[in-house]
Known about the structure:
Bound molecules: manganese (II) ion
Strand order of the largest sheet: 1-22-19-24-17-14-13
CATH superfamily: Jelly Rolls
Order of helices and strands: EEEEEEEEEEHEEEEEEEEEEEEEEEEH
Strand content: over 45%
Largest sheet: 7 strands, antiparallel
Amino acid sequence: MKTKSVERIITPPSPHFVGDGFRVHNFIPSDYHLSMTRMDPFIMLDYNSKFNFPPTDKPRGVDVHPHRGFETVTIAYKGKVAHHDSYGNSGVIGEGDVQWMTAASGVLHKEYHESGFSKQGGDFHMVQLWVNLPAKNKMSQPKYQSITKDQIAVYNLPDNGGTVEVIAGNYKDKTGPASTFSPVNLMNLKIKRGARTDFNFPANFNTGLIVIEGKIRINDNETADTDRFILLANDGEIFSVEAEEDSVVLIMSGEPLNEPIAARGPFVMNTKEELIQAYEDFTAGKFGRL
Ligand code: MN
């Protein structure tokens, strides 16, 4: 086994607002050496670093918009998001919860701060990750996985060093509850100062970390502060994380699909023709109503 070395530590790009409710650093795709294919199958990553929203009676968020061809994964660290879609689904993503939405053939949805959170205001800290779908699954039936905090598989690090909370894929003997269309590992490492642990993913899996809180050392030589994205090279399998402070780290590693990408706005397909079809279907009302 070889070490998966650090290819680059990326400071967060300047934030922008998505709607009026999500103040995000767009790590993927960006000019910071993270093209839409570099982290394949992870094609988009908006990181809402911890941001305090003042109280309001009118919930902030993003109004009705479509998606087709991929999955949106929302991970809530602080704050609560309510969502509604064109299939009549709705719910609240609370702190510690994950929503895994398979847009596939197409949904319309809207995403807002939950009304109680909006009235109270407070810290809001989220990740939205888009996971591409294999060509053969892009037009399958949309579905939701509402993964609550208590459903996430927890691996306890030795000596009370913390936990690895597995959302999808595997860490040692723990398997995450999310079902995926291609091999994807997604987990939160919650590690105490001074503790250390190792991860092992195939060399060809594209792998990245975000320091959600704290400060870590990777492979005993590179340190990364809060809000940094750490891109790992495809040169080995194993990397280590040691906490210089109590830390929370989002870890993603997935097998690349290596399929052509035709993307525009909320649609990610394989060909330009499929993109045009997506716009036609959306305009014709085939994504339903909301
Ligand atoms: Mn959306």
